[in-house]
Model the fold of this input.
Amino acid sequence: MRYDGGMNIPQEVKSILNKFRENNFEAFAVGGCVRDFLLSRRSLGEGGLGIKPKDWDVATNAKPEEIQKIFPANFYENKFGTVTVKIENASDETLAEVEVTTYRVDDRYSDKRHPDSVSFTTRLEEDLARRDFTINAMALLPKDGDYEIIDPFGGQKDLEARLIRAVGDPQSRFNEDALRMLRTVRFCVQLCSVKQSFAKQCFSIEEKTAQAIKENAANLQFIAKERIRDEFVKIIMTEKAADGILMLHDLGLLEFIIPEFEKGFGVSQNKHHIYTIFEHGVFALKFAAQKKYNLIVRLAALLHDVAKPQTKRGEGPDATFYNHDMAGARVAAQVLERLKFPREIIERIANLVRNHMFVYDIGAVTEAGVRRLLGRVGPENMKDLLELRMADRMGSGVPKAQPYRLRHFQYMVEKVQKDAISVKMLKINGEDIMKILEIPPGPKIGAILDVLLAEVIEDPQKNEKEYLKRRARELNEIDLSQLRQMARERIEEEKEEEDKIIKEKYWVK
Done:
């Protein structure tokens, strides 16, 4: 099948393909680049999807050593026949390196992740047959100024129908690499247009392919958690992230990724929510994705109520979920640790989940309360926390118009952000206290600083060196255990007051 010259393959790719033919070898652009290239055409919808191929891959009947002879600037460090050709002065950084792979067929996948071995073949169709989905099993050939699409499995038809279909037998495809089941969902949500209507542009999964996923979902357990994490993140970072979560649930995959979140399915809440716990998390994520919030906020939106099922007491409009924020932080951290997320991301998300119930009612929130929150959360995380709270509110199903209250809270955050919220911000430090009191280093220094901080958070005007020096002398007369108790009581008393306001408001006592 031919298309007019309006299709513009990058010159670098054309040069590679032509060079193979000059050396009497076949070569084609293959895989995802062909899919995205076709999706950008007007023939597949008014204006196309505007998708630009992220990279270009080439397949050829030349063996790796023959590829290396034709393109001396290369590197070849794998057992799958892929030679990376380096291109100098490429017009785009994505074209600085082009992967060229010898036609191959794969042996069985014992670990459901990688082929036990590969064999080279001389037939393009055999190479395309080993690929995952029909829309990724096409090849493109420049020919006489036009372009021909090699499409033995009906990928173009499925693109037009917005359908994700496995190549050949779906059972075999998913047994070869169980991660393909996640990729099915990822392609559905990733390839949806954000420019046009849902009904016209969103992809769905072909019936037999979907059934094969349901039957093989448990094989996801054999996949490295890092690989699952990476596909899951790609789903979460699309605009259709919420649809992705629902697909994962419907296909039986979610229980092998986040079984803790699955526990909220069908579990009702109270008078402040019309949705179940599961639905609320999905809708909170939907809002976060629509607003293009970052990965931290999106994951926190999904997981912020993950511990509600285990903390639920009672039924109906007066059901309670006491301490679900604290328990949720622990569960969220366990989920993310299992999926091998970096420590920094885990800590930031746990921090947001732990503090997502903060008070921001005008008249109830005080400057001291905002300073304490800043101390717990960290000023650098306040924007994420506010976005999480907005997603939480909008995902409740009964959101109230509260933009002014949030603006007022933001104003208070800015107003107090220069006040001391940590020991490091006190105008006196441990060395000062040791000199003033003429005592050696020890735990009493830290205890005195904790009490001083608690007082300064309550009244920032006390953060003056002379006052702190005088107060330190007074505190030095108090026993260490009592000092620690003073600091602890102050913190717990303030947190208890904040909790009381939240409980009364959300019926979680």
Notes: The mean pLDDT is 86. DSSP finds 24 helices and twelve strands in the chain. The first helix runs from residue 11 to 22. Residues 423-506 form one domain.
